[in-house]
Amino acid sequence: MPHSHHSHSGQFCKHASGLLEEVVLEAICQGFQVYGLTEHAPRYRPSDLYPEEAGIDVDALMKQFEDFLDEAHRLKALYADRITLLVGLETEYISDVDLKGLTSLLERVGTRVEYLVGSVHHVRSVPIDFDRPTYDRALDLFASEASSGTGPQESLFLEYFDAQYALLQRFKPEIIGHFDLCRLYTPQIRLSDYPLVWEKIIRNIQYAVGYGALFEINAAAFRKQWNTAYPGEEVLKAILNEGGRFALSDDSHGPHAVGLNYHRAFDYLKDLEVTQIWYLERSDTPNRGGRFVQAAKVEGNWSDHDFWKGRK
Question: With a threshold of 0.70, does the pTM exceed it?
């Protein structure tokens, strides 16, 4: 204690800010003991680049990711006596091209990627977390399918959780990233009101629990105007009911956001009576995904750690 398993820097992510080393130094300053460095996996099609990436080609994105691995491992060694840094990546699933590309990338870099944050940010190749107009564009893709008996909103949810399931099956990520990101612009929606969607949610939770994943409590939802972290309350309760385990993430996008809203995540977890927090640590034996990290439980009462005293 304390930990974060999901972060970005402006050095290697155009919608973030600051240098990777500045992120690490801020984590040290705040007293983090384990901090994960997880830039986005490269993308493979020019059409999948974001507006802020204008002028960058896909080869440059791959080089940027390789530079991230070099810098992350340099910092891991440099600050090893002050903090445990884990070097990972956050997945992308825009099309099947991304799954094939990530498979090849992981084979090539080997143990330099120590773990995965399994995230989905797109439905039918359209970003669902970029801005509201783009999200609405994703919804519009389903408008012509109303005759199937499901409306656009439900259809988007169904495809999102199917994509998530495919990602879990293929890569078995150690951390499940912002599980219900598909509700970003509609946090008031109860996913359990859609029986077909809820069935897929439970399926995904059970699968992730089965291979030993941790579900991140992602504090970034608070800066997105949510009243909870990701996942929302009904999903968090479902994870608990299925025997799921939680890990903390700030999903910082620069040094200014390291540990941001952890005090609100603390209150959220206490209100829902989450009694155990887990984190990743190195292991001598491979996990179900073939990587050398394992889940470890915070000993004692996680909420009594000195880290929280100035944040409550």
Answer: yes
